[in-house]
Task: structure prediction
Amino acid sequence: MKILHTVEFYHPSVGGMQEVVKQLSERLVRHGHDVTVSTAHLPDRRDTVINGVKIEGFAVKGKLAIGIDGELERYQQFLLNGEFDIVTNFAAQQWATDGMITILDKIRGKKVFVPTGFSGFYLPEYKKYFESMRLWMMQYDMNVFLSEDYRDINFARGSGVKKITVIPNGAAEDEFLPDMKIDIRALLGIPQDHFLILHVGSHTGVKGHAEAIRIFGKARIREATFLIVANSFWRGCTNACKLKELVYNGWFKLKSGEKRLIITSLPRTETIAAYKAADMFLFSSNIECSPLVLFECMASKTPFLTTDVGNSAEIIEWSHAGMLLPTVKDAKGFSVADVRGSAKMVEDMYNDSALREKMRESGFRVWQERFTWDKITRTYEALYHKLVFDEKC
Result:
């Protein structure tokens, strides 16, 4: 099949959506398909073919709700002239999808939409956008959701959309199964006997870094290091987090020297090594759809504590690999961890090695059974095949 995936950003850009599309696209190429990704042009992307995936870059930015600037017309002509069997839009509320949904009826080939959560669903500036979304979703040949119960799939059902299926996220077996030769503790100067708590999430400002640092600070635990692995993000929280790191380590070094905070960016191999070395994962994100990091916790045998964000409760039900932090949700749909209650949960997991071991083994077993990217890709491949070759679908 000739397949087009559209996504706002792609490799070498780093992020959850980039990782999903990369995993699916590269694996579909390995299965013999012709896969192209249309995405934003990046100056540091030097190749137009990466691991067999063709890259079409466009100098476009924005979204329908606020306006789209740049090469929108060239992008739309590419969509109209392409002879793709399948065109899949990943994530709403960004130009790579918004630039197509207004011309859906003119696009050749089968059309698939993966909304990934509708993060702006409760924001007033998106009111007209989501009023139109009801009709747009009807024009897709299939709408793929990551969860059985979240705002995007519930919106679709309430709007009378019939072409619905659920395909969850996953984690890569070729990344997490091999033994790691990287000693992340030695690399970052973390004492070998320290209890290592990990958080992975870019400095977007909505990954809950501030709350996580407060939770760690309040938790009554000793000889512990909190490692936040985060890439910088435009207008994000990088500077604020680095200041917190400086102040925090200065204070606790003077006070006891028993707790440390490290905030850094790491290449992917070292991030995976951090997962495997961690004793616990603390995820206090404010907005998600289906957090990839929780599947990666399962793959790395890392028990997790997470805010009630996206379908994290469903992932816990599937895996029994973690627990929900006490969470408050505001009028805009953002989740905020209760610091005091969350600190108590960190203490409890810190003191319960048997529980952590049980979560580790359960999550890893379920991941291997259901949530490897190989299994997820085969599900997408079967869907694409059915759409293209079965007119009754």
Q: What stands out?
A: The chain has two domains: 2-170+372-389, 173-369. Residues 238-255 form the longest helix (18 residues).
